[in-house]
Amino acid sequence: MFCCINCSIPLEDGDSENKICIRCMNEEKAYKLDELNKWMDEEIVKIENDERYKYPPAQLDINGYLAIIQIEMKSRIRLLQEVKGRINK
To answer: What does the domain layout of the chain look like in residue ranges?
Structure first.
């Protein structure tokens, strides 16, 4: 009989392949999701604190480079918020 590598609880026959119990697996998954949420929050804050994000929207014919950067920043924030919303359902 195998034991969990994290907490040394004897494993059932179906769990012996993973060498980790269901409780430890769920704790590990929750920890990884928390870390992912923290990272997404940090990325959103980085983008919002960027000076280029705070400028009024640029016009392509006047400052095309800034306009492209602003579009990319806004789409990245939107994508991070969407992923975060789906994870936290």
So the answer is: 34-87
